[in-house]
Amino acid sequence: MAVDRYLYQLRLSDDVLLDVTARFQAEMGKGLARDTSPTAAVKMLPSFVRSLPDGSEKGDFLALDLGGSQFHIHWVKEFDDGKQSSQLESKSYPTPKEVMQGNGAELFDYIADCLSDFMETKNLKHKKLPLGFTFSFPCKQTKLEEGVLLAWTKHFRVRGVQDTDVVSSLHRALQKHQDIDVDVLALVNDTVGTMMTCGYDDQRCEVGLIIGTGTNACYMEEMRHIDLVEGDEGRMCINTEWGAFGDDGALDDLRTEFDRELDLGSLNPGKQLFEKMISSLYLGELVRLILLKMTKEGLLFNGKVSTALLTKGKIEMKHVSAMEKYKEGLSNTKEILTELKLFPSEEDCVAVQHVCAVVSSRSAKLCAAALAAILTRLRENKQLLRMRTTVGIDGGLYKTHPKFAGRLHRAVGRLVPACEVRFLRSRGGSGRGAAVVAAVARRLAAQRRRLHTALAALLLPPAILWELRDKMRAELEHGLKRETQAQATVKMLPTFVRGTPDGTEKGKFLALDLGGTNFRVLLVKIKSGRRRSVQMYNKIFAIPLEIMQGTGEELFDHIVQCLADFLEYMGIKGARLPLGFTFSFPCRQASIDKGTLVGWTKGFKATDCEGEDVVDMLREAIRRRNEFDLDIVAVVNDTVGTMMTCGYEDPNCEIGLIAGTGTNVCYMEDMKNIEIVEGNEGKMCINTEWGAFGDNGCIDYIRTKYDREVDEGSLNPGKQRYEKMTSGMYLGEIVRQILIDLTKQGLLFRGHISESLRKKGIFETKFLSQIERDRLALPQVRHVLRQLGLDSTCEDSIIVKEVCAAVSTRAARLCGAGLAAVVEKKRENQGVERLQITVGADGTLYKLHPHFSRILQETVKELAPQCDVSFMLSEDGSGKGAALITAVAKRLHNVGQK
Ligand code: 0WK
Ligand code: 0WK
Ligand code: BGC
Ligand code: BGC
């Protein structure tokens, strides 16, 4: 057919379409990336819509819907009946040309007048109502309730609005109406409104598509891909503004002379080139221009060019749709062309129908090609091979054209076979969606407020931290002074370790490391002098709960059993080696090899131990076994072992810090300040046992109800209060308590407290470290929660992550305040203006949590500005330190013997 000579350029094969898909994918990437976004044709505008409705939205909302073929005002009543039902009352208002092409003030006054009329009609003037504003034009947003118009499109061309915030313009106009009181909570694009409207009925809907007067699409993008918006958590809806695809020439090879002619005659030449090949505002015109050319070349209407063919906009979308109707298409064509005074022949009608079909097919296929790019991106974001999803659609062309929808669906099916797509027509327009966005915004705002209230109690402003530093300092002094030592809660236990390693240590030593996550037995070989080095062999043994909380005898028999296995394994059962015992619990020592357990902490509660000398108990257990003999030379706290281990590398290391299952710190104190130990010369290491800080109630004012819950549920209520706010054994439990409270408030997990959430200890601190890892995408957070039997939404996981961060940050800042007190004391001890000191640190919380150590160090810097504190991670654990102490003790002992 001769007509095809004209139309072949408008026929797009699937290969060409796949190429368009690839081009559009590239454009999307440009629009999202910080450095290319300013010049990108496809703007990829963040909408600040982060979540889909979850069915708890409720209340009355107003919605304005401007920019499509009609201006609608809606009154949306959402019912929190769990059935996601809502009622809609609407009224349409004309958009006269003089308004669409007048000035800004007139436009917004007109909108406000219509709203006032609507509220009058619906008797809503006495109500203060939230409003969602669907404004179907490209707007740059920095928050939900604001939007700066980038450019008018379609048939709008209002002066003085471009580059201004349309929400404040609307507010100004509304303020002129004293009798209406509305709060514009959200500005959304019609694609976003459509996605939300459909999302209300189908939670899988994550794409919004408009094919009407104009065309555009939005979809839920991963935050980590949106460079222009802070944060990597969750997703945000991106308004692609795909109408401008090709404005940078990317589609010039596909644009025909008719497209170029249409663009030159449009209100915005060179702009919205993709839209001008697709949307209903332009398709009729395209058909006219093609028919005009064919007629001029005598291929139609006997070459007689009538006025209608020369008149712009004479052929409209409704004509094209009517001419393509299945049955009455041909008769419609005759009728329409006759009305246009073209007196068509039968062939003319068939040819004109053909032109319409080719033009509208191209439109559907181009849409499909761009939509295929979005669907592919969604599937790749989710790392799925196959994906099921829903696309919410609205727009006159899609809804009224007899064949458009079918053509679009089939083309999408061919272009992205790995995506199973449900096309869901929007019921009630994007107005309902705008109300849902406003409702979600209000719910999220309320949620945020309540979340912040809940978490506010965990925030420690600088003033409080300085106070805590000084309170810790006072407790340190209480523990050192003879007259207050007995009542002191921070026990400041002398360790009889009087010096850090000096490199002369040498020999083979055994070490036990009990009290942390793992129980280790170690053989440590220390060389001194030029070949100075430490070699270690160790084996980790489990301490079953029933042993930790059994009898003292069983515990020490278990320890000796492990020792025997290790000696067997190392083939050194016969060697009566000196042993250093790292015992990470508060022990009152009278000498380096004597330690009376003051009280169990962490998960230990073995009977008949408290008040007993743990070295004696170990010796008795060895005797009971009667298989080997050892020389237990020293019992040390893990903080002391850690200080020594690091001191071996850095002589400036005079502080040992553990932030692990438990928390504690030791430091080298001047003998003259240790009033309960004879002598004023030199130094001795003090095991502060700061875990008990606050057991006298001095920090109760910062303890929250969650802390009290955790304490009451612990093995030692009322004890170790500081530890229970700062250490790995308890942080997960604090988080769990907060999550339960937030769930009870309906802020989480849809208010449902699952069995898992009720289970004590289910939220281990390692999960905090996992969840708080930067750039951990929310799906992975949800995966962690799923492992805990917690089915969560995106929002839930964002909140869980915030709760984890609040709890661990508080812990780190509390530890920082305590440590600042210790280094400040050291500085004053030395009477220097500036102190340089190293802290040896260990413990899973310090080592594995993504932010704990950094926040702790920053807090020390803040609260001890005259101290240059370096932190040294203990690579080998405190076992090495225990061996070094044993070596020193052994050497001193031998010297003493001589
Ligand atoms: C109905 C939606 C409205 C959107 C319109 C687009 O409620 O927000 O702008 O569809 O279709 P049109 O009216 O331009 O054909
Ligand atoms: C490793 C040390 C050990 C200490 C532990 C504390 O070798 O002495 O008790 O760190 O950390 P946790 O294992 O409790 O996290
Ligand atoms: C506008 C979009 C809108 C689309 C559909 C385009 O002209 O730029 O913001 O979503 O029309 O109404
Ligand atoms: C113990 C300390 C120990 C700390 C770290 C606390 O519970 O009381 O002795 O240093 O945990 O393991």
Structural overview:
With 898 residues, this protein is α/β, with parallel strands linked by helices. It has 2 domains: 1-448, Hexokinase, domain 1 (3-Layer(aba) Sandwich); 473-692 and 874-892, ATPase, nucleotide binding domain (Nucleotidyltransferase, domain 5). It has 31 helices and 26 strands. Strands 1-11-10-9-12-13 form a 6-stranded mixed beta sheet, with helices on both faces. A 6-stranded mixed beta sheet has the order 14-24-23-22-25-26, sandwiched between helices. It has a 5-stranded mixed beta sheet with strand order 4-3-2-5-8. α12 (346-381) crosses α14, α21 (638-647) packs across α31 and α28 (794-830) packs across α30. The longest helix has 37 residues, at 794-830. The chain binds 1,5-anhydro-6-O-phosphono-D-glucitol (0WK) (2 copies) and beta-D-glucopyranose (2 copies). One beta-D-glucopyranose binds next to α21 and β23.
Annotation field: number of helices: 31
Say how many strands there are.
26
| Spatial order of strands in the largest sheet | 1-11-10-9-12-13
Number of domains: 2
Which bin fits the share of residues in helices? 40-55%
How would you sum up the global shape? elongated
Beta-strand residue fraction: 15-25%
Low-confidence stretches: none
| Rg over alpha carbons | 38 Å
Mean pLDDT: 93
**CATH class descriptor name of the largest domain:** Alpha Beta
The oligomerization state is single chain
CATH topology of the largest domain: Hexokinase, domain 1
Membrane topology: Peripheral membrane protein
Keywords: Acetylation, Allosteric enzyme, ATP-binding, Cytoplasm, Glycolysis, Kinase, Membrane, Mitochondrion, Mitochondrion outer membrane, Nucleotide-binding, Repeat, Transferase
GO molecular function: ATP binding; D-glucose binding; fructokinase activity; glucokinase activity
Pfam families: Hexokinase_1, Hexokinase_2
